[in-house]
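Purpose: get a first structural picture of the assembly so the mutagenesis plan has something to point at.
Setup: four entries, given in the order below. No constraints added.
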Amino acid sequence: MAKDRKIDLVILGLLSHEDLTGYDIKKRIDGGISFFWKGSFGSIYPSLSAMERSGLVQRLKEDNESGREKIRYHITKKGKDQLRTWLKDEKADNDLKYETLLKLYFGGAEERDITLRNIDIFEEKIRRDIEVLKMYKSSLEKYLDNEDHLYYYLTVTFGIDTYEAYLKWCAKARKLLKR
Amino acid sequence: MAKDRKIDLVILGLLSHEDLTGYDIKKRIDGGISFFWKGSFGSIYPSLSAMERSGLVQRLKEDNESGREKIRYHITKKGKDQLRTWLKDEKADNDLKYETLLKLYFGGAEERDITLRNIDIFEEKIRRDIEVLKMYKSSLEKYLDNEDHLYYYLTVTFGIDTYEAYLKWCAKARKLLKR
DNA sequence: ATCAGCATGTAAGGCGTTACATGATTCA
DNA sequence: TGAATCATGTAACGCCTTACATGCTGAT
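Result (structure tokens, whole complex):
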């Protein structure tokens, strides 16, 4: 039952780049990292409150121009230390749940057409997603001398490379199933 | 809050191949499908009880040779229908959580050596896992005329192909980071 | 005026893990 | 005789999602 709220680390990581509101954090997660991590408001806001209580992040007093409620957070020294401790920790679980592969594995319970259709759907989704990643890639390529951008770039190329492997596999699988 | 216990489908899928005990099911999950799905006793046994109550699976009366407690389950007609309905359902969420990529993305908070080390660890794990997959592959190749084996084979090649893409990416990433 | 997007948060509940509890059997 | 494996199950608890609740702001 070790405390293992990965969302905390995601938030600390994002805050190590810039000060952000909970809403901003959600947008950052939905943007560049959503293909390998997800997060909802229902986990972000409680995490921010908890981390504020334990001194990992700080509320910034906004020059409340409007009166609109908006809480921007800043990472503290303690928060940065926690982030670095996690980065240095050698264990990392990559927890993959491919429902598509599950359906493929149990495909024998239905007609082949069903499996072929499921592969098509998977492929279509990947084709759409890879386009987005390629756009990210080309905009990141221009600033590889920026340290952070280099890291973003590497995650994006990871995505593109694996997605391309998926697409090649789809073609092979289709061929095998159509025989 | 839609009921969405995927473990139920995993179990129904496995039972569509053969009658199994809860313990057997755990072994099957840890074997061929663990690289894309996981499951623990704490979810398997409650799922079996629930599915028995709703008539998706049936206990088999063992010719209790020994007296040793052992409950083998059989999938019912209703269970098979549920499995097929799921296979035909076009939505499939492939939920990937790569903690390694998260650490990579936030790598800027530490020295490059840390990131390089994390890539090494990732690569070592993949190299080990790909060997296992290749063994599965070569034993499955002999029986591709068997419908079920064809499906197992396809999931295994999916794993091998993507893992090979990971390995290529590791080399590229290392090169970029060492400049 | 209306609607999309900005912005924060809570409540209920589902899913799943880890740890625990228990005991039989097989094999060295 | 002791360890590994077979075998079933429960309890506690953690994490997260979905849905709900609320209200402001900016653009059309």
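The two ends of chain B are 49 Å apart (CA to CA).
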